[in-house]
């Protein structure tokens, strides 16, 4: 199966500039898919999750149109063909 | 003012590192400190609460603590005065899993003493101390302080529960002093294994017990390098001096318009001279709409306002705890950065001031360095393989130049 991560531009410094990273494997959850992404691109990890393994407060992860905060967090299931979007959610002036 | 990609200081120049809520700016000038080179913004969009310059062992290394709301807090360094910055793949400061804590902010980067040339400290939020013994390659939590029995009872100030001050001792590497808001002053005499609370004589106006063992909202502490047992302290209400390395504190808030304020800075060459910026408690601005630095030249027996060149009408300015710094030149330079984005400097120990920069984002830290070596590092310090070096983002002007 294959899932695809959509990488926000500040994190592309750690994905060789690649905006969409397709991963072949057997990830069943967002957490497992993220682990596979971070194994390939280690610089992504600390920017998406804290040292306690929690998704950072102002980072949103969507599987399709669903924010994983509403669907089980990192345990949210992924399927073949899932698009996983990492989006910073910072507002302000 | 022309902003370059990097500053190019010469040996003997002062550099000033200005951290703001939206990036950092670097400045450099010769001894007269009249003509400033300026570069920035560096790390645009990142909150830079902490900065330090490591000139030990022939280094010319700028350290910045950089926080991005989305992607967390990391350390960045430049060995070429801002031309390029490291961008470590892994955030260097991390709480161990068993603590259950996650790093929020790096409030202080402290350079160890000359006789420990590879030692650095970071004071962070949530309140904890990290140290590096390998020039910043790796960092570890100082467990002796984290496991202190007082820690569960520490309460956050308005800025969060932060360890904002780290003062290594220039002659005794085992003795380090830290300050936490709102817990107060702690000192180790055994290299960090154990920590003693050192708040004797410091008031806590906001508590029923006015002189508790701990819980004081200490805003900043300064130590003089030539007399390490002499300390000055700006409290959340109260000014203090200690002549015994923080064992006891004496009130020196005589003749100031307010004993509330954030920063306190010592004169680099005179242990009797210190500087504060009194703020009134409600607005946390200079009283009467005046930006006044106050100076004592007699160890706190009396204070004098310094106003020449500082705005004295309608100046509702706030200077935060790391918003004032000295340089080591003679005569001494004193710098003040405000939340309204103005940087003032004095090249004569505070007698007169000039506006160096304005229009910056809110300034949250001002730190300085004295450039000892330029371009010829005697003992290069390896950059970790995990620390990817990135060139500063090209400006529109540099792109035009390249074209």
Topology:
The complex is a heterodimer of chains A (93) and B (403).
Chain A: E1 2-6, E2 20-24, H1 30-40, H2 45-48, E3 59-63, E4 66-67, E5 83-88
Parallel strand pairs in A: 1-5
Antiparallel strand pairs in A: 1-2, 3-4, 3-5
Chain B: E1 3-4, E2 14-20, E3 23-29, E4 37-42, E5 47-54, E6 61-68, E7 72-78, E8 84-88, E9 105-111, E10 120-125, E11 128-132, E12 140-141, H1 143-146, E13 162-168, E14 176-181, E15 184-188, E16 196-197, E17 218-224, E18 227-235, E19 239-242, E20 250-251, E21 264-266, E22 274-276, E23 293-296, E24 304-306, E25 324-326, E26 334-337, E27 343-346, E28 354-357, E29 363-370, E30 387-391, H2 396-402
Parallel strand pairs in B: 1-4
Antiparallel strand pairs in B: 2-3, 2-29, 3-4, 5-6, 6-7, 8-30, 9-10, 10-11, 11-12, 13-14, 14-15, 15-16, 17-18, 18-19, 19-20, 21-22, 22-23, 23-24, 25-26, 26-27, 27-28
- Indicate the CATH topology of chain A: Ubiquitin-like (UB roll)
Biggest interface, CB < 8 A: A-B, 21 and 21 residues
Number of domains of chain B: 1
Main sheet summary of chain B: 5 strands, mixed
Mean pLDDT across the residues of chain A is 96
Please tell me the total number of domains of chain A. Answer: 1
The total of helices of chain B stands at 2
Q: Please trace the helix and strand order of chain A, writing H or E for each element.
A: EEHHEEE
Computed structural class of chain B: mainly beta
Computed Rg of chain A: 12 Å
**Average residue pLDDT of chain B:** 92
CATH class of chain A: Alpha Beta
- The oligomeric status of these chains comes to heterodimer
């Amino acid at each position: 199966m294959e899932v695809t991560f959509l990488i926000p531009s500040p994190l592309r410094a750690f994905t060789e500039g690649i905006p969409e990273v397709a991963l072949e494997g057997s990830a069943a959850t967002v957490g497992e898919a993220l682990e596979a992404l971070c194994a390939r691109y280690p610089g992504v990890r600390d920017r998406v999750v804290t040292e306690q393994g929690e998704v950072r407060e102002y980072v949103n992860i969507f599987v399709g149109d669903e924010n994983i905060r509403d669907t089980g967090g990192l345990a949210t299931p992924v399927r073949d063909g899932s698009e996983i979007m990492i989006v910073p959610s910072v507002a302000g002036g | 003012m022309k902003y370059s990609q990097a500053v190019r200081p010469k040996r003997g120049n002062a550099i000033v590192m200005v951290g703001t809520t939206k990036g950092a700016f670097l400045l450099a000038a010769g001894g007269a400190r009249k003509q400033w080179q300026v570069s920035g913004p560096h790390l645009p969009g990142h909150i830079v609460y902490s900065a330090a310059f490591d000139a030990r062992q022939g280094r010319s290394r700028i350290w910045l603590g950089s926080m991005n709301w989305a992607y967390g807090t990391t350390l960045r360094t430049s060995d070429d005065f801002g031309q390029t910055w490291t961008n470590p793949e892994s955030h260097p400061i991390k709480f161990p899993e068993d603590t259950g804590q996650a790093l929020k902010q790096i409030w202080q980067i402290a350079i160890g003493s000359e006789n420990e040339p590879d030692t650095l400290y970071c004071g962070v939020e949530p309140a904890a101390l990290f140290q590096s013994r390998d020039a910043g390659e790796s960092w570890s939590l100082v467990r002796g302080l984290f496991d202190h029995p007082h820690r569960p009872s520490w309460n956050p100030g308005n800025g969060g529960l932060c360890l904002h001050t780290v003062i290594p001792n220039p002659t005794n590497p085992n003795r380090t002093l830290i300050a936490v808001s709102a817990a107060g002053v702690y000192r180790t005499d055994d290299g960090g294994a154990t920590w003693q609370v050192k708040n004797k004589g410091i008031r806590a106006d906001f508590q029923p017990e006015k002189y508790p063992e701990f819980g004081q909202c200490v805003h900043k502490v300064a130590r003089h390098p030539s007399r390490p047992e002499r300390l000055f302290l700006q409290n959340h209400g109260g000014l203090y001096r200690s002549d015994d390395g923080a064992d006891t504190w004496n009130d020196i808030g005589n003749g100031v318009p307010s004993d509330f304020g954030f920063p306190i800075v010592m004169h680099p060459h005179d242990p009797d001279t210190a500087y504060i910026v009194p703020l009134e408690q409600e607005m946390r601005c200079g009283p009467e709409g005046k930006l006044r630095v106050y100076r004592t030249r007699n160890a706190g027996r009396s204070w004098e306002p310094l106003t020449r060149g500082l705005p004295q009408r309608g100046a509702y300015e706030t200077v935060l705890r790391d918003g004032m710094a000295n340089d080591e030149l003679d005569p001494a330079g004193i710098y003040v950065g405000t939340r309204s984005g103005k940087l003032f400097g004095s090249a004569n120990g505070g007698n007169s001031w000039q506006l160096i920069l304005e229009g910056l984002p809110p300034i949250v830290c001002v730190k300085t360095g004295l450039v000892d070596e330029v371009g010829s590092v005697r003992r290069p310090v390896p950059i970790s393989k995990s620390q990817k070096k990135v060139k500063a983002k090209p400006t529109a002007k540099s792109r035009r130049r390249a074209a």
